Structure formats: C-alpha cells, structure tokens
C-alpha cells in the first residue's frame, strides 16, 4: 500500500487510533496515545511522533507490538513502526507525564527562559503506574479514610484547595500509599489538564537537588518545584541531610502558603520522623494525617477474587477452588503485594503443571510465607483462635454454655480438631473448651467424623481449618 497524500495518512491514522481506543480503553488511550501523530508512511515503514522522550520510551517498552499489530490491520504489511520525538515546540508543563493536551507548532520566543525548562520536565518526576488509579483501588475499613481524603484532593478545583493541607498518608509497605498518590496524579491529569501535578519520590527529589548544586543552578530548581500546583512526594522517610530538608521545607512552605496542595506518603507518622526537625514535623501535623492499616479478611478476599478473575482471562483453564482462596486470604495477612505474590505462586504452579490448584498444593507453596514455617506442635489456643475467626464466633461463646447451632457446630469442630491435631486427652480438651466432661468431647468427635463421611462441604471446610491452624 502506497500513500502520497498527507490527508490519506491522517485518515488511516484516525482509524488506527480508534482501534487503539477500543482495545485499550479511554483512560489508557488518553494517557499514552492522545498526543501521538502520524509523520510518514513509505516502503512499509510507518513513522509516528510523540512530544517527549518519556512517552516514546514508555510506548516502545509496553505497546510497540500492539501498535504494530493494529497498524497492520489498517495499512496491510508493515515492516516497522518507528516512534519519534517531535522537535517542534510544545507547551511547557510541570512534568512530562502523559496527559491529553493539544500540541502546538508555535516556536518559543528567542532568548526567553521558560519558568520550567522543557529539557528537564521529563526527568524531574518519577514515572506513574498506569494501573494504579482510583478505579483499581480496593476500599475497606482499613483504608477508607485515606481513600476519601485522596479523592477529595484529586477532585478539588484549581484555586480551591481542600481544607487540609498537607495530606500525610502513612502505613507499612505494600498497603496502598503509592497507589493513592498515583491515582491522584492520574485523576487530575485526566480531568484538569491545565493543573501542574508532580509525583516524585524523596530519593529523586534529593537527586535533582544535588544535581542543581553541582551545576550551580539552584534558582531553576526552586522555580520548578515552587511552580507546581499539586506536589505528591513518596517515601518521605528517606529524605536525609540538613541542607536537603531545608530546601524541601522552603518548597513546602511556598506551596502551602500559596494554597497549592501537597500530599506526602511515608512509612511512619510525622511524629516518628526522627530525621526531620521539629518545625517541619509541626507543619506536617498541621494538615490531615491518616494511616492505612492491614486489610481485614473481607478485603483480602475481595482483592484475591478480583486478581483471580483477571488471571483467568489470561489463563482460561486456570482452576482454583474457593477453599484455596480462603486459605490464602487467611494465611497472608499482609497487604496487597503479599496477596498478589501468593496468588502468583499458585498461577506459576498451574502454568508449569497444568494441574488444578488444590488446598494441599497451596499449603505447600505458601509454607515459606507463614509466620512460623517450621513444624511445631499445635496448641488448643491456636485452634480456638482459628475457629473463632473463621466462624466469626467470640472465644467467650465457644467456651460458654450457649447451645445455638451457630456456636455448637464450631465448638464441636474445634474439639474434633483438638483431638486430631494435639496429644491432649479427652478430659483435658473438655477442660480447655469451657470445663466440659470427656463424654461431651467424644460425642463431638464422633459426630463430626460421621458428618464428614457424607458431607463433602464440611470435609473441605475441616481440611481448610487444619491448614490454617498448621500455619499459625
């Protein structure tokens, strides 16, 4: 196919762009391809351009094959798709991260020094993760306040900041701090393209400041950071050095005093930032400080179910029973990263063996993730803890004289497990389960054994409980 007229190339590119939009979705298309333009089509080679090196590198790394495939669907045989960086002028922005803004061919006035040097724009901020948006963030009791505060910041209008500034989010690693900061950046860039938003880690902030000192160009450094509308700084606990902290303090004060938003994420609350001076800690405490706790069991189940659904789209034959998901949710009590790591191990075993992921396999694979991986003697206290958590029955009710079915069945299963997993005698088990006699324990053991022979659901449930207890 030969194309001489630029108009024909533009029409073909519009159809390619529409294919990209349909396949990727509006958010990803707007983030990475909205500013791509066709340049040339000849001798089986298609050349397209984007305004920045960052966009070119990202597209070449993550979307090159897809771009080539969709171009061939429209143009026929395509030997290569070349992504170039446009040399004509583009509006100066606070960062080089993707946003759907129009490209202009207007050249900057000669001898004019921009407030934010375009040559530095793509190097200042840290890369955003396109998968970390508000839509992909799982909300539960452990992170609801942090999510609500982040959403308020993201949806605040230009010149009308929220009542809390700064927003300080802290938690252990892997619980969603970085996800929320990325989500804020994406939401603002998609909804308010004229606002200058910068996501950057403390380490990268220090790197650029040291570079500015070496080049004796700290004025440009100050101008750049003090011109940001929304500053999102991650891993704040790594900010080190008196001079570095003073510079950040100046930047922080300038932004907050001019009603621009600052969002900070760290592993610890401001009061525990021992390397930060008291005045800075005081200013941080003057905003809203929220923490993200470990996800509860219900949230862990939701995260796993969603990840499994995504994995099944990629591996249609993947088989994993609800018991396995329940086992992972109970065993991995950390954050989303730990849960994804555990599920990825299951998927890897499926890919290699093409065998269904069973409860026994899950217990074996996740043994190294347990708090106490070494084989140890099971304690009746561990059984009471797992039974109470699994059936949502308070320990006091298990040991009480209550006879409702919601309490009796878990109690009987607990006695059966105590007999099966511990060397304790029937009288001793009875004493540990609220002072019952040995005949009550024996009745419970025999009843559960009989029911398991005919009730597959109960048998699977007991097998799951055994694995959970062994992981204690």
Q: In angstroms, what separates the terminal alpha carbons? A: 66 Å
Q: Per DSSP, what share of the residues sits in E-state strands of 2 or more residues?
A: 5-15%
pLDDT < 50 stretches: 1-5, 88-123, 371-376
Mean pLDDT: 80
CATH homology superfamily of the largest domain: P-loop containing nucleotide triphosphate hydrolases
Shape: flat
Strand order in the sheet with the most strands: 5-6-7-4-8
Helical proportion, percent range: 40-55%
Based on the structure, what is the oligomeric state of the protein chains?
A: single chain
| Domains, number | 4
CATH class of the largest domain: Alpha Beta
Helix and strand composition category:
alpha/beta
CATH architecture annotation name of the largest domain: 3-Layer(aba) Sandwich
CATH fold-type name of the largest domain:
Rossmann fold
Spatial extent as radius of gyration = 29 Å
- Helix segment count? 21
Number of strands: 8
Q: What is the element string, with H for helices and E for strands? A: HHEEHHEHHEHEHHEHEHEHHHHHHHHHH
Largest sheet: 5 strands, parallel
Please describe what this structure looks like.
The protein folds into four domains: 6-85, GMP Synthetase, Chain A, domain 3 (2-Layer Sandwich); 124-291, P-loop containing nucleotide triphosphate hydrolases (Rossmann fold); 297-369, Helicase, Ruva Protein, domain 3 (Orthogonal Bundle), CATH 1.10.8.60; 380-470, Orthogonal Bundle (Chromosomal Replication Initiator Protein Dnaa, Chain: A). It is 53% helix and 9% strand. Helix 10 links the parallel strand 6 and strand 7 (261-266). The protein is flat and about 85 Å long. The N and C termini lie far apart (66 Å). It is α/β, with parallel strands linked by helices and 472 residues long. Strands 5-6-7-4-8 form a five-stranded parallel beta sheet, with helices on both faces. The relative contact order is 0.07. The model is unreliable at 1-5, 88-123 and 371-376 (pLDDT under 50). Helix 1 packs across helix 2 and helix 6 (144-155) runs parallel beside helix 7 (177-191).
